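Long-time lurker. I teach an intro course on protein structure, and each term I like to show students one example going from raw sequence to a predicted 3D structure in token notation. This year I'd like something fresh instead of my usual example. Would anyone be willing to generate the tokens for the chain below so I can use it in lecture? Attribution to the forum is fine with me.
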Amino acid sequence: MKTRRLGRAVTTAKPQGALLRVAAPLLVALVGLTVWYLLAETSQVSKAFLPSPAAVALRIGHDWASGALITPTLITLGEAGAGCIVAVLVALPIGYAMVHSPLLAVALQPFLAASQAVPAVAIAPLLVVWLGYGTVPIAVLCALVVFFPMLLNVVLGLTSIAPELLDAAALDGAHGWSLARHLEWPLASRAVLVGLRGGFTLSITGAVVGEFVMGGNGLGMLVSVYSNTLDTAGLFATILVLCTLAVAIYAAMLAVEHLTDPEREKIR
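-- Reply from a regular --
Happy to contribute to a lecture. Here you go:
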């Protein structure tokens, strides 16, 4: 009887937990919109300084219907996606190599840490000199921005595996590729996917920064143009689209994590 009751409690808790994860952010968004509306409509703040939520919503609808937002959004997504793919292809093997080679880890760690002290805005002009303008340097900048968080999570996931499991697998004859495929990567997948989630979300920032410095036709270009022309409604509209993209990517990566590892919900 106790087991059955516990099972029912678990099954009913999961939908409640999922509902809470949806309702809580929506409640925060509603509070933020309410505060924004009150500041814009009831205070003495100029509409040129703080447009109302309704004005921004109308601007988003107009620009989306006219295509002024669709193409820049797709361009920014393409740049961010290309950068993430490059970062994944580099971070995963380097992280694996660092875990299995202490000498390589000691040799690379100071340089990886030092690379995080250099802001993306400072790297962008160098990429212009080396690669010119366009999508390629922006994608490279995105890759540089998201590479380090991905690498750290790869290393964390692989080093968190219990040594006893690795020793037992080695005694059974598993080594090299078979050990990595059947034991190491499956056990490290949760940490790796968390790193990918953060990296893919952060890639939008890398794309926007790249467009600020290296030009382009994405959402970063729109932010720059609207800022220079003091078009606050357009600026708010573009920023909200960027926020929506980040949230959508974050939610998509959470869905991937759940599909690849449904048990993660029971542990959280």
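Some talking points for your students: The two ends are 25 Å apart (CA to CA). Residues 36 and 144 are 35 Å apart (CA to CA).
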